[in-house]
Amino acid sequence: xxxxxxxxxxxxxxxxxxxxxxxxxxxxxxxxxxxxxxxxxxxxxxxxxxxxxxxxxxxxxxxxxxxxxxxxxxxxxxxxxxxxxxxxxxxxxxxxxxxxxxxxxxxxxxxxxxxxxxxxxxxxxxxxxxxxxxxxxxxxxxxxxxxxxxxxxxxxxxxxxxxxxxxxxxxxxxxxxxxxxxxxxxxxxx
Length: 190
Hints:
By secondary structure, the protein is α+β, with helices and mostly antiparallel strands. The protein has a single domain, classed as VC0802-like. It contains five helices and seven strands. The chain is globular. Residues 3-7 and 185-190 have low confidence and may be disordered.
């Protein structure tokens, strides 16, 4: 389970541009040091070819501050679940405390769910299949769908090994989270 508080920090997911891959961790550490934001990254699990990086931060505000300075980070997500297969991801989502998810799913908030894959293209039908498979008992959205400018944007992110376009293997890593911020230069992106 990713999102609930652990040691006065929350777990977030950074999505990096797939450029200058040797510098993304160094940039993150430098910005955190400059802004005096304590971060925790499990460097044993760090894969420079993976555009996604799980990081523990003190607050969403601190994550936004880092994104305001980053050149290589594209997006920041509050990480709700991560797994190596869909069944495990769904189990992780089902274990989320109701009081944690409820404020984000209320009827007065519009929402959307986006499905994105790295190193593989997904058809619209595959994306819809993944959205429909999310556990309804936990992700009981009460608000209306708004695909253009929702109050809450949830993302299912899939990371595949290279050469995955030709492979029938599943994703190496799956992430589900609530979008927090794009990098400053991309604020107008959907």
